[in-house]
Amino acid sequence: MNTFWTVLLIILAVAAVALGLLYYFGQKLQVRQAESQKTMEMYSQTAQLLIIDKKKMKLKEAPFPKEVYEQTPAYLRWMSVYVVKAKIGPRIFNLMCEKPIFDQLPVKSTVQAKISGAYITEIIKGAVVSEKELEKRTKANAKAAKKAEKEAKKASR
Q1: In the prediction, which pLDDT does 75 show?
Q2: What's the rounded Cα separation, in Å, for the pair 131 and 121?
Q3: Rounded Cα distance, 87 and 50, in Å
Q4: What is the DSSP letter of 154?
Q5: What average pLDDT score do residues 63-89 get?
Q6: Are 115 and 91 in contact (CB under 8 A)?
Q7: Residues sharing a CB contact under 8 Å with residue 73, sequence separation 6 or more, in sequence order
Q8: How many Cβ atoms are within 10 Å of 47's Cβ, its own excluded?
């Protein structure tokens, strides 16, 4: 019975150390994120965008300069990003955004948004998709995915 308590104490000590490290590094990352958020807000600009296309793709496949991929931390390089192809003035740019903004951006319409570098931070005004329309799109996408899956199963037989 003595060995049981010894093993249990060791496991609890390792778990406590692991939780302490997670807390420490979590706090560090929160501070870093807050600083980068301040920097992004400081350098953000308002622009009129004509949304041409939008896609979700791997960062390596995305049409960004090589420096963007090289400056991305190694643990984030395998993730997918939301890419928006937009016309700002006479030029066409490839911009990045988060999922909530990506879902609200309508294709082939004009939107006024805040941009920080190659990142869309906020939609100020424009043709924002309503929640009802967003639900319809989600259901239609799910239905199309199921149909494609069924056809793939039939084809493999």
Answers
A1: 80
A2: 20
A3: 5
A4: H
A5: 88
A6: no
A7: none
A8: 17
Give which of 126, 108, 118 is closest to 43, Cα–Cα. Answer: 118
- State how far the Cα of 19 lies from the Cα of 26, in Å rounded to an integer: 10
Please name which of 49, 58, 45, 64 lies closest in space to residue 107, comparing C-alpha atoms. Answer: 49
Q: Render the burial of 58-71: b for 16+ CB within 10 Å, e for the rest.
A: ebeebebeeebeee
Listed in order, strand segments (DSSP E) in the chain are: 45-58, 80-88, 91-97, 110-116, 119-126
Mean pLDDT of 114-126: 87
Q: Which of 133, 150, 141, 125 is nearest to 56 (CA)?
A: 141
**pTM for this entry:** 0.63
Task: State whether the Cα torsion 79-73-34-115 is positive or negative.
Answer: negative
Residues 100, 111, 123, CA angle at the centre, nearest 5°? 40
